[in-house]
Write a structure and sequence with these properties.
The chain is an alpha+beta fold. It contains 15 helices and 16 strands. It has three domains: 118 residues, 3-Layer(aba) Sandwich (Trna Endonuclease, Chain: A, domain 1), CATH 3.40.1350; 76 residues, Winged helix-like DNA-binding domain superfamily/Winged helix DNA-binding domain (Arc Repressor Mutant, subunit A), CATH 1.10.10; 132 residues, Beta Polymerase, domain 2 (2-Layer Sandwich). A hairpin with a 3-residue loop joins β8 and β9.
Length: 348
């Protein structure tokens, strides 16, 4: 192919060629004058109809980097289709490219290309995670420190800076700064300079965190039976001296129109002790109470009291429901809808 020194672009085109239907071909093409792309090809159908494909190679591409790529999309001026190649493209990057009508192929096999004339649609799946990713904590939202930072950013409406977040979450400022850089690259926050935030996409951040750290990764789960029912258990919680917060449907139903719960979810500092004081029976099946023992006490942040019962903050409840069993994810959507409509109520 043209620009033969660009191994990444050439390898991406080879990957795409392997996914073409029988009779379709990708052939060499000269780069346009004053070109700003890495490679040019001609896509030809079995009946001889052709289309230019202009390839842009990116060794690394994060969601933030997609915006200037879209703004500089040269496919209209060049009268062809733009194709991005990279060693790996994350799901969020692929979605942004796809929404912008830009084709892509990465070396793990993720590919997407739509050409109206000649009519062609290609979509294949490769790796869902970067096989060569850097595993440093600041490159993900996994772990207790990241959870505390996410909760604070989601729950706080006014702009905050690195040092304020570090103080309030008891996390090293250097780690907070690296998390900010990661969230910025994922377009989940907007920054003023390198320190202070201008805005937070709280819903996208909440979903990203829940996906990276599902409920089972954040807690030790134990299932119990209260033969007297959930109402009786909630009544005993009101008189309990345990450190706890109610989460899940029991908590969400106080905010959003959600059907009555059949499973009570409670965060408790010591699950066995709380169960004993509440008179619950440990069971393997038929449970109606799920006690979650947290790996970090950040789950208690922002709790509020109603009728002498402590309930987790809406952001914590939503994250717990998004990856909980049964109807939990659907109930999370109802709660998030309420959060959108009442942001002034729950965001400080």
């Amino acid at each position: 192919m043209a620009n033969s020194g660009n191994n990444l672009a050439r390898e991406g085109v080879r990957k795409l060629s392997e996914r073409l239907p029988k009779g379709w071909r990708l052939t060499d093409s000269k780069l346009p004058k004053d070109h700003q792309v890495d490679m040019a090809c001609t896509l030809k159908s079995p009946d001889g109809v052709s289309q230019k494909i202009f390839v842009e190679a990116k060794s690394i591409l994060d969601p933030k980097g997609v915006a200037p790529l879209i703004a500089g999309d040269r496919s209209v001026d060049l009268k062809g289709q733009l194709l991005v190649t990279s060693p790996y493209l994350s799901p969020s990057v692929r979605k942004r490219l796809q929404d912008a009508g830009i084709g892509f192929v990465d070396l793990t096999g993720n590919a997407y290309l739509v050409v109206s004339r000649p009519g062609l649609f290609i979509e294949t799946e490769g790796a869902s995670e970067n096989p060569d990713r850097d595993e440093r904590p600041a490159r993900s939202l996994v772990g207790a420190k990241a959870a505390r930072i996410v909760r604070l950013l989601v729950d706080t409406q006014k702009p905050v800076g690195v040092r304020e977040v570090a103080t309030r979450t008891r996390v090293d400022p250097g780690y907070v700064s690296r998390v900010f850089a990661y969230l910025d690259s994922e377009t989940l926050i907007k920054r003023v300079g390198r320190g202070r935030l201008e805005g937070v996409d709280w819903e996208a951040l909440l979903r990203k965190w829940a996906l990276a750290s599902p409920l089972k990764a954040r807690a030790t789960l134990r299932t119990y039976l209260d033969p007297r029912g959930l109402s009786a258990m909630v009544g005993r919680l009101a008189k309990s001296s345990e450190k706890y917060v109610v989460t899940g449907t029991l908590a969400a139903s106080h905010l959003a129109p959600i059907a009555a719960s059949r499973l009570g979810m409670v965060w408790a500092e010591d699950a066995d002790r709380a169960a004993a004081r509440l008179g619950l029976k440990l069971v393997d099946s038929g449970a109606n109470v799920l006690i979650l023992e947290p790996r970090d006490d950040g789950v208690f942040a922002g709790a509020s009291q109603k009728d002498d019962v402590w309930y987790a903050a809406p952001s914590q409840v939503a994250a717990d429901l998004l990856t909980s069993p049964g109807r939990g994810p659907a109930e999370a959507e109802e709660l998030i809808q309420w959060m959108r409509e009442h942001e002034e109520v729950w965001r400080g």
